[in-house]
Amino acid sequence: MSAPENHGEAFLNWRQERLEAVNAFLARLFDDLKKHRSPAIQNLCLAMEHAVLNGGKRLRPLFAAASARSLKISEELGLRVGAAVELMHSYSLIHDDLPSLDDDSVRRGKPSCHMAFGEATAVLAGDALQSLAFETLSGCRGVPSSRVLAAVALLARACGPVGMVGGQAEDLAFENQSPKEEERFSMARKKTGELIAAALSIPALLALGKKKAATPFRLAGLYLGSAFQIQDDLLNSLGDPRRLGKAVGTDASRGKASILNYLAPNEAEMEAENLRRRAVQLLRPVNSDPQEMIFRLIDSLSNRES
Prior knowledge:
Helices cover 71% and strands 1% of the residues. The protein is mostly helical.
């Protein structure tokens, strides 16, 4: 699908460096927040840390870093964008795990935020992570303020009622129903695709200044998000809970609109691969990274187990 040796040493080193950089950036955010605060706010910050710094693939920050690299903009901008999107993603996971939604007691092999800190604090931690995401993104330096404002607006739309939260609302509405296949794919694009699209397209918007120029990155992100959701559905049905760090079979027990309601597992895998290929086709003309890290990253997702 992309460059050969997609798991070569250069890619593995780059990925590890970016993971360490974003984890250190996120840790510094929380260290700053906890300074000279009341016990209640320190406890809130601990709940936020629990949700963000408890592992995770950091897929969205990696896509932001790869996008920044492909556009030849600074690693610092890519890092800040990736951190902002990861904070938004982490807030969504806290709320998804609540008893009123998916009622999951384990996340990444550890107690969910509400299990560790109580439901009220978990709700507040999610709220605080959302606002911290916008604060982090608004701190981009070295680009025109109009582009930063456009980036903040893009993230707001991606996580709002026509994006991630809207997709979650449709996911709830589709439980124990029989939505059409296209309705299910549209839900997945909103629920999972929009934040991945934001991670890819915000660096393009900061670099190029026009939404139209960022369009290939956004569309590629939507395809990749849909492929990622297909893999999530497959793993929820067929995966190893020890590798996943959470229970399996929960989609079926809740009557979720899974891809397996429409396609056999091998057909679903083929569909995910087709979506990844379409993303690569969109990104090839706009990539200027000779090492093609963005394509190596896409390739690395094809056989994930968690």
